[in-house]
Amino acid sequence: MVKACAGRVIGLGWGMDTAPAPADTLPPPSPKYLTNRELYVLAGATAVVVANAYYIHPIISLVADGFGISHAMIGMVPAFNQVALALGILLLLPLGDWFSNRRLVSVLVAAQCASVAVMAFAPHYGLFVLGSTVLGFFTIAPYLLPAYVSKRVAPGDLGRATGIITTGIVGGILVARAGAGVVAEYFGWRTVYFIAASLMLAVTFLLPRIMEPREAGNDRQAGQNYWRLILSIGGIVRDFPEILLSGAIQALGFGVFLAVWMGLGLHLTSPEMGYGVDVVGYLAVLGVVNLYTTPRFGAWADRIGPRRARLALSGTQLVGVAMLFFMGHSIWLLMIPIIMMNVGGPALDVCNRMTFLNRAPDIRTRLMTVYIVIMFLGGGAGSWAGTAVYDAAGWHGTALLALAMSVTMFGLCLWSFRWTDKTQAA
Question: Are 404 and 325 in contact, with CB atoms under 8 Å apart?
Fold first, then answer.
């Protein structure tokens, strides 16, 4: 009787003489969409987290000299980092469909902060490689955030929002490659990692305060366990096989990017070219164009469709890569293909992600897992191949390697139209 009276009192307070509906019968609350300010803050935090893997690019020769190792051996640092990242994404990223992304991010960025500190103080090459490899394993936050953001934006705004987050990734890569070279030239390569550790410490406290504590679609279902969650990826791939094609295209694109920049870091500082690592950093500043173009290409892909946009962008990158073979002798001529690659590469990533980030919210993180694992396996291969081929055949060998990978990527983008038509017909 007391409960009934209380119900009537509450009802009268709202202007109706009925008890409130039980909680389990209420419709789910509408998703809280991210503001532009929140999107850009997340993009900035993403930039800091992503940058850790790219500081090595312009300073690779200084680190090799500092530890007294060959150019072929130094390629193990980015290669192991990328492979460990692929493994970490496979084992850790699917947890984003279970647990609060904010909780996961808090743990992951703290582990990254510790790994960067190890690299800064490493007394020998083995510990430096170990720190870089562990860093890669825990670099999950930048690939958890796109799935998180996709649940917090209107469906028609997915391309633009994904473009903004990708701009953060691009900005982090840009600052890492440009800033690391200048800092290392004047203050030593270890200073680069001291600064990186300080930035990571700030992000460790910042990100959990920006993100919502829970997201729709990440509730753990009865009877599920960790290994069942991991094995469920196979069924998701079976239902959405296009993720394999998008991942393969991105793996080739990312592999080209890393192979070219690993080769450039060695080529420009070689006796033939005679530049310092700061010049490698200055050349990387050309990537600033991406901060303007990537969100706009995302919005363009919203209008014409991600597959058509992907084909056009892969063609642009192919033309740019083809120029590397003929323009490698001049730093001024190299700016032309580098700008073309900078424009096409990140926007291509946005288009690839758009092909699966419109799926059901409760599987997006696992789809992202498949995509990123494939991408970083390609990146690890490109990192090692870029230094190994340069060691064996010089800049022309690196350019030919990048060209072969770009031709294959363009062919897959073209074939995706026929493949998609078949799967839709089925």
Answer: no
**Which of 31-45, 117-131, 404-418 is the least confident region?**
31-45
How far apart CA 420 and CA 400 sit, in angstroms, is: 30
pLDDT at 420 over 60: no
Q: Which CATH superfamily is domain 34-210+226-425 in?
A: MFS general substrate transporter like domains (1.20.1250.20)
Instruction: List the chain domain ranges.
Output: 34-210+226-425
- pTM of the complete model: 0.66
Q: How many CB atoms lie within 10 A of CB 271?
A: 5
User: Which of 75-79, 100-104, 422-426 is the most confident on average?
Assistant: 75-79
- Whether the per-residue pLDDT at 54 is higher than 90: the answer is no
Residues in the chain: 426
3-state secondary structure of 246: helix
In sign, the C-alpha dihedral spanning 413, 82, 381, 291 is: positive
pLDDT of the residue at 194? 94
Q: Write out the two tokens for 27.
A: 């419709």
pLDDT for the residue 406: 92
Tracing tokens 């193990």 back to the chain, one arrives at 76
pLDDT at position 424 over 50: no
3-state secondary structure of 310: helix
Distance CA 423, CA 426 (A): 5
Comparing CA positions, the residue from 163, 169, 147, 159 lying closest to residue 51 is 169
341 contacts 260 by C-beta, under 8 angstroms: yes
Q: How far is it, in rounded angstroms, from Cα 334 to Cα 320?
A: 10
Q: How far apart are the first and last CA of the chain?
A: 60
- State the Cα–Cα distance between residues 71 and 61, nearest whole angstrom: 7
Q: Is the pLDDT of residue 190 over 90?
A: yes
242, amino acid identity? E
CA atoms within 13 A on the CB side of 192: 30
> From CA 305, how far away is CA 192, in angstroms rounded?
40
Tokens of 230: 């991991």
Higher pLDDT, 365 or 306: 306
